[in-house]
Amino acid sequence: MRIMLRTFRNGDEAALVQLWNEVLVHDPINENRFRNQILLDANFDPKGLIVAVEEGEIVGAVLAITRKLPMEGTNLESDTGWITFFMVHQQYERANIGHQLFEKACDYIKNEGAEKVYFSSYAPNYFVPGIDEERYPKGFAFLLKKGFRKVYSPVAMHRALIDYVYPEQIKELKKQRELEGYSFGKVQDGDLYELIQFANVHFNADWGRAIREGILMGMDPSRILVAKKQDIVVGFALYGGYEGIRERFGPFGVDEREQGKGLGKILLHDTLHEMRKQSLQGAWFLWTSEKSSAGHLYLKNGFKTYRKFHVMVKELTNN
């Protein structure tokens, strides 16, 4: 067995997607997603996509990323790198390929000036928030062996909409808040600047980017719902903003100064109701904390956890 490591070359795409779907069986992709989320990522560098080859066949791969384009302002997060996927064909799991790939990936990230590497909380183009220990126990054990540690454990949730009916109590709550000066409705073009700034400032730049790029890529702005207090945006929710997947809910948030008034609950149900009007059968998202206020809200309103991930980190300076 003679394994050669090299960086990505034109023509590797189909073989990488095939290997991905053989190894990462719980998260299959197609060549369009590979192109859009990897090759067209502004931070993609072919030197960071390292493949293992035996007799011309790709049998393993890892993707390492550092920022070339800031998420906001001029912050390149230069001390941080990310690994967004890794995979080795089952027949080669004991051939030390994973170790070699990770050494090369970490060397790439370190040479770019980073001091730590995460799996896999990279925005904007992550495939999953972290490692799913239940579905990929060998992958989780491998990360621990390579010196990664758990940072936190987000969950993915889903809610069926087949029998969804807008709750009467939410109607009453909404009427009460409207009497107090709040308003709820679909975003207008004139709201977009304020909304994107609100998302950037109160939450994170990836949410503002999702709104802007979603609309530029053809998302119907009517999928974005906003809550206002005296014409000032204090909350929003949307669906279909990521990859054009209509059933994907979020991002979603309410100004922390306005929390505790049920505004999030109203926005959540207004959005689910809009999704049901579109004959969508379910709503899902990949990332929240079960213990956060948002997580509690979801669980109390029909969402169920269906996957759990671990965001992992390794300090490269301690190698």
UniProtKB/TrEMBL annotation:
| GO MF annotation list | acyltransferase activity, transferring groups other than amino-acyl groups
Q: Does the keyword Plastid apply?
A: no
Q: What keywords were assigned to this record?
A: Transferase
Q: Which domain of life is it from?
A: Bacteria
Give the N-acetyltransferase domain ranges.
Answer: 3-168, 182-317
The record's listing under InterPro entries reads: Acyl_CoA_acyltransferase (IPR016181), GNAT_dom (IPR000182)
* Name of the molecule in the record: Acetyltransferase
